[in-house]
Amino acid sequence: MANSTETREVPAAGNGTSNSCVPDNATQFNLTSHEQSPDFYIVLPVIYSVICAVGLTGNTAVIYVILKAPKMKTVTNMFILNLAIADDLFTLVLPINIAEHLLHYWPFGEVLCKIILSIDHYNIFSSIYFLTVMSIDRFLVVLSTVRSKRMPHRTYRAARIISCCTWILVTLIVSPFFVFADVYKDDLEIQSCGLNFPKPERFWFKASRIYTLILGFAIPVSTICILYTIMLYKLRHMHLNSNAKALDKAKKKVTVMVFIVLAVCLFCWTPFHLATIVALTTDLPQSSLVIGISYFITSLSYANSCLNPFLYAFLDDSFQKSFRKMLECQAA
């Protein structure tokens, strides 16, 4: 999640920028098209194209297998399906970001500007929120296992309803960005797509950053950490019965999943949100190093969309078997 959306704020007067990929704090991190390094101009489209290709292939494969394979109709896979849809949606519009980067201006009009900015923000919030839902589901499953209780209400239908509610919640969170999205021209008369805040612009800019930081990272990540901490504590202190070996395997699987989920999530998104804090509290000088770091942070957040399929699906034995079986059927 910290994509070009968080970099598209309309800058204050006298600080125009045509490059939406550079974190913009209205008075810093600005880079006009004629100042852009040739290395950035060439390398970034290649990186974004790789992320787009891998993300589309991986997430589309996840969606296809879950929808087609009968054994994949599980509660967890319903959440994985929605996570893949969110990532696929973002990678589908990534070529437009690439085109804007190469052209140095926004040629696609106001309507598409609002749509692209909204989808970018959907990527920021939907991934982490579905990850939070998956964490809550796993927590409840482990808790019921420890207490030797069944979960009659944990059904595939219930998972679909929860997924719809999650999308509605994310839509409400993203709606302000859709309202403020607009096409504007800077001092160089270069047309760009950004968030056009009312006056005082700096106040609204900071508010949007804090809004994203709290709702898109602090609250969901804190929730995930608390749930997994309690879950591991319960597993570590549970008394094993005759099914000790099976429970011990489950304990190890959960431990590995906790490590992978938290490590990758924090690895991809923490730099972006740390950069947000830096942008809110300091005035960094514009330099090639700062610009390079900002591009790296953006690319890292983009990369999360192509890592999720490997984390939540390709590492799953049942998914691998279903995927191979479907390939064999098509080959036959």
From TrEMBL:
The chain crosses the membrane at residues 40-67, 79-98, 127-146, 158-179, 210-233, 254-272, 292-315. Pfam families: 7tm_1 (PF00001). It is found in: Cell membrane. Keywords: Cell membrane, Disulfide bond, G-protein coupled receptor, Glycoprotein, Membrane, Receptor, Transducer, Transmembrane, Transmembrane helix. Gene3D superfamilies: Rhodopsin 7-helix transmembrane proteins. InterPro entries: GPCR_Rhodpsn, GPCR_Rhodpsn_7TM, Neuropept_B/W_rcpt. The keyword Nucleotide-binding does not apply. Belongs to the G-protein coupled receptor 1 family. SUPFAM superfamilies: Family A G protein-coupled receptor-like. Residues 58-312 form the G-protein coupled receptors family 1 profile domain. Residues 1-21 are annotated as: Disordered. This is Neuropeptides B/W receptor type 2-like. It is a multi-pass membrane protein. CDD domains: 7tmA_NPBWR.
